[in-house]
Write a structure and sequence with these properties.
By secondary structure, the protein is of the alpha/beta class. 39% of the residues lie in helices and 22% in strands. The strands form 6 sheets. The protein has a 7-stranded mixed sheet with strand order 14-15-16-13-12-18-19, with helices on both faces. It has a 6-stranded mixed sheet with strand order 9-8-7-10-11-21, sandwiched between helices. The structure holds nicotinamide-adenine-dinucleotide.
Length: 490
């Protein structure tokens, strides 16, 4: 087996195909810079079609053996993977901080969420049970089994380097599928560690494969006839393309997409708690989260108390490298992401928003360090671009609304529907919000409503293309198909 180069050398990463680490033959590779310094940590190859083909063929060849492996045995494999990953927690969290830039606390929290998904997958002997009805007609019984879909392509985004691969790979595998993982080319190293844990846990060759690359490599998976299902998480335009392309090829697809999450604050809310929760929701992980609060809808007359409280917090937020213990917000993933977010702030001001606060950020080292000042925009109107588009950065917009019904209506006019939250001390208001809001994940007096892995993680409307969910038993339905048997024994 070839050695696995990784670490601070800027070495070129390898693919895992059929149980062996192999050099990608592709000539081109991208640097993977540390977002806090710009210094390359590794180089990620942009794998060519032939390499995708080899990985898919390996996954197909492994499928008959793996899908007939007893379910408890598959679950035990995941237990070994979990032990290995937990044993490497420090280096995995450090690796997330290094390649993504988020602070240690956020990296550790998201890794824990990933482990939770791995843990849930181990209950497969329970959730994969079928159904039976004895006697649907004279002497006839009916039973439904849940069988694997086949070869699953898992295509993941940059913002959760461990958690999202861990949503997909363990569950797909425990359901009896084989997998080709194509992680984000911007955070390829954590995925590499996860796949290596599967290898160390004695996963049979070909069951879990990893192919590095970008859009071109992902596209090859979407059109490969050997791929049966595509699990995707990423931005809305790419999710739409993924869904249209792969579904057009007859594949099963679940594509989780972008977000624009509204946080409604009523005058009766506990303002100190709400302020803390909103700050963490909007500026945690530099706003690079699909559950990030992006728009506060302040129900009057709360805004004149809430905005100064938020502004004071924005001004004192400590921005810096995720490796520094005092840092509260790290850099953005790339210079392009930083420039794009800055462009949104300029656009918002041009559209008539008021700059309520701007924080500070360290001077970047020459050639790197994609730091950005956190921004709070007030007097935003619902039709403005900053209120409509996913900014995916540390920018929070405040819209003032006359009452709760209008606040809900503003949130519902968004084309996205990933998450929403309300801050109130009124059970009646919370209940009205819960019933009327058009979003998949709701927070009541909390700002990041991330469901645990045994509940469904999925948005509504433009935040998802496909059905079911990324986690929980709904996800197990995505990774299996029913087989219904009618039997009569004369
Ligand atoms: P992205 O869409 O740029 O990339 C996601 C993946 O798709 C990467 O692996 C990338 O290589 C691949 N890709 C990019 N362009 C492609 C193309 N044209 N064809 C095929 N594949 C392509 O997303 P990102 O910037 O890495 O991640 C951030 C986005 O993900 C945000 O929009 C965020 O809201 C979203 N996200 C959503 C959820 C959710 O649960 N809904 C969770 C996390 C992130």
């Amino acid at each position: 087996m070839a050695t696995l180069p990784e670490g601070p050398s800027g070495a070129r990463l390898q693919n895992l195909v059929n149980g062996a680490w192999v050099d990608a033959e592709a000539g081109s590779a991208l640097p993977v810079p540390d977002p806090a310094t710009g210094v390359p940590l590794a180089h990620v190859p942009l794998s060519a079609p032939a390499e995708v083909d080899r990985a898919v063929r390996a996954a197909r060849a492994a499928l008959p053996g793996w899908s007939s492996t007893p379910v408890p045995e598959r679950a035990r494999l995941l237990r070994r993977v979990q032990e290995i990953l937990e044993g490497q927690a420090t280096e995995i969290v450090d690796g997330i901080v290094a390649e993504h830039g988020k602070i240690r606390e956020d990296a550790a929290g998201s890794f824990r969420r990933g482990l939770e998904a791995l843990e849930f997958a181990q209950s497969a002997p329970t959730f994969l049970q079928g159904r039976i009805l004895s006697g649907v007609a004279a002497g006839i019984d009916v039973e439904t089994h849940r069988e694997p879909v086949g070869v699953v392509a898992a295509i993941t985004p940059f913002n959760f380097p461990a958690m999202i691969p861990l949503w997909m790979v363990p569950l797909a595998v425990v359901c009896g599928n084989t997998v080709v993982l194509k992680p984000s080319e911007r955070v390829p190293m954590t995925a590499q560690r996860i796949v290596r844990a599967f290898q160390s846990a004695r996963t049979p060759p070909g069951v879990v494969n990893l192919v590095h690359g970008g859009a071109g490599t992902a596209h090859e998976l979407l059109v490969h006839p050997g791929v049966d299902a595509v699990a995707f998480v990423g931005s809305a335009p790419v999710a739409r393309t993924i869904y249209a392309t792969a579904a057009g090829q007859g594949k099963r697809v679940l594509a989780l997409a972008g977000a624009k999450n509204h946080l409604i604050v009523l005058p009766d809310a506990d303002l100190a708690r709400a302020t803390r929760a909103i700050m963490s929701s909007a500026y945690g992980s530099a706003g690079e989260r699909c559950l990030a609060g992006s728009v506060v809808v302040a129900v009057e007359p709360v805004a004149d108390r809430l905005v100064p409280a938020l502004a004071a917090e924005v001004r004192r937020l400590v921005v810096g490298a995720g490796t520094q213990p005092e840092t509260e917000m790290g850099p953005l993933i790339r210079a392009e992401a930083r420039d794009r977010v800055e462009g949104f702030v300029r656009l918002g001001l041009a559209e008539g928003a008021v700059l309520a606060a701007e924080g500070t950020a360290p001077e970047a080292a020459p050639g790197g360090g994609y730091f950005l000042r956190p921004v709070l925009l007030d007097h935003v109107r619902p039709e403005m671009k900053v209120a409509q588009e996913e900014i995916f950065g540390p920018v929070l917009a405040v819209i003032r609304a006359p009452d709760l019904d209008e606040a809900i209506s503003i949130a519902n006019r968004s084309r996205f529907g990933n998450a929403a939250a309300i801050f109130t001390s009124s059970g009646e208001a919370a209940r009205r919000f819960r019933g009327r809001i058009e979003a998949g994940m709701l927070g009541i007096n909390l700002g990041v409503p991330a469901p645990p892995a045994y509940f469904p993680f999925v948005g509504w409307k433009g935040s998802v293309f496909g059905d079911l969910a990324a986690t929980g038993t709904e996800a197990a339905l995505f990774y299996t198909r029913p087989k219904t048997v009618l039997s009569r024994w004369p």
